[in-house]
Amino acid sequence: MISFNSKTNTFRLDTPGSTYAIFINERGYIGHAYYGSKIGDDDVSYLTRNKEYGFSDNAIFREKGSFLDFFPQELPTDGLGDYRESALAVCDAEGHNAIELKYKSHKISAGAQPLPGLPAVFGSADECSVLDLTATDDILDAEVTIIYTVFEKLDAIVRSVKIKNNGSKTLFLKKALSLALDIDDDGFDVITLHGSWARERHIDRRPVHMGKQGVCSNRGETSHQEHPFLALLDHKADWDSGRVYGINFIYSGNFIADVQKNQFNNVRAVMGINPENFSWKLEPGCDFYTPQAVLVYSDNGLNGMSHTFHDLYREHLIRSPYKKSPRPILINNWEATYFNFDTDKLIDIAREASKDGIEMLVMDDGWFGHRSFDDSSLGDWIVNENKIKGGLKHLVDEVNKLGMKFGIWFEPEMISPDSDLYRAHPDWAIQIPGREPGMSRQQLVLDITRKEVEDYTYESVAKILRSANIEYVKWDMNRQLTDIGSVQLPADQLGEFYHRYVLAVYRLQERLITEFPKLLLENCSGGGARFDPGMFFYSPQIWCSDDTDAIERLAIQEGTALVYPLSTMGAHVSVCPNHACGRVTPFKTRGYVALSGTFGYELDITKLPAEERAMIPGQVALYKKFSDLVRNGDYSRIASYSENNEYDCWASIAKDKSKALVTFVQVLNHPNYKTRFIKIAGLKPEAKYRVTWPDEDQTKFQPMELSGLTLAKAGIPLRRDWGDFQAQLIYIEEC
Q1: For residue 345, what pLDDT band results from cuts at 50, 70 and 90?
Q2: Which of 476, 532, 604, 634 is catalytic?
Q3: Nearest C-alpha neighbor of 158 from the set 319, 316, 300, 280
């Protein structure tokens, strides 16, 4: 709930377990007073240290620069004396860089507000309330509204900013971040997520040090390399205990997520659109909305933070009809055939897959134009009937006759120089006039910020979907943006291009799911480079990584699940040696790791060894049995291979604590070693639970009955008489 105490000029934003307090001082500055465990008092203005060092009203006038460099502003601005990382920078028509915000008004309302052109959390009047906190700079005639959405049942607060030009002169936004948070450093660590292609979102934890540290992307998308997430946490915080502040960005383009520790041992965290190569021309009467940033507070360690993020995104961001439904078990032909396939081959795969309970065939890259390699035909979304004999509808109908659904791959934002589209419209590719554009994967990027290009791109996809019973689309993007030029934008607006590009992607996908509301859309970008909450508004799942190796996936899925629900992670079983890293792992282990995602297959089932092929029906049955628990339960990390270098373990626990599915992977085995006990927290202490190993020989893995307290404090024994890369599933159900 949100409340305002007019006597103390204090706002309280209360969630079930946290309080966020804001204080308006005597000169109208909007200060951040408190964020943390729930407290009971309204007047927390003293926490801003507003009167320290003689900062009375007169002293502020005398020492304004010192005051601004110390005061914890809710939206710190540039150019007037706060030398820490700012959240808002504005240049006026005369070239001056300064903006000063003073409180003007506020409004408290019920129910979440949409953001024009941007993904945004949603919630009813019973589920959330909103504070619009408005400040002005009277010199610039600028009005800035910080918008806080507070959830009644979740320890989450969502922030965005609206900047409006009420004056008669043009303003230029040089920086427009969504969030700033000032808190005392009590010995914090910072967690960020890093990686590269095929090893996305690995967890990196380190102590907060003096100066700036953080992550950013200037690639035009979220990227494989960095991720729009950071967490500040107590140095001793672990999976189940300690304070954690998690921050995430609901956006799919360039971002910055920084932490700065200053001379007063104060930590400022900021998040928003990356100001590098960004500017926005704000004409008189116009406004600009920043994307939303999410704040989550947990007193219960990283697992507590993860639960809140997962619940928020499942219940208040994902809109797909599949959000709470089982996803079809699919088989994708990419690693099975690459570009070497035709109708007969695809039907062969579908026929064999249908026998084992697989429910959908996805036709990946290579079905259009004259594309037999990755160097041509992007933009020419016309079925190649030399490959797809009899046409696409014939293929889809034949797959449907087998009782299977059909899905298809697109890369709509791209254009190949070797394409009919490029030959007809070379100016449609993003490029700088006179400069040779940089290729990546022998392709360029369409300038979808132009209306005619956006419309062509949409119709290219939509006409294919209208032509046959296609129920799934994999929307890929296999390169980042470079050579930013525009035939449409004037020089003083070229800094808007990156953001306009992201808005165009959102428009395209909104059009797609509006025309095809039952479509299962899966986003992808060379694997996991576009795995961010902005895309969840349009697709309930995202391809997690092009690396399907079960052991590499442990770190990838651990980092991803730290923030995002398991139901959003595209995860498939593939062949060995693995195509990305060459590792050989047991087929059972590959299946168990993929079960904690959307689950599917990335292989040629017609060539699979008989022993592995025989395991598919059992894996399908496991998915069907446990998918509701994995999709809707609370994910809890038990152990991390990236920390202990030996084994990995996690659980999905039902919301009512009646059951749990535990996955254990022994990565490196050691000889002459004692039995390991895995402790399962989060169940009802007093309840009795039956513990079984549902996919093992029951003569060796006999059921046990243990209390929830025993499971949490003593644990479950795990056999150690097996080698590297072996795995177990453990099912726990209340008696």
Answers
A1: very high
A2: 476
A3: 316
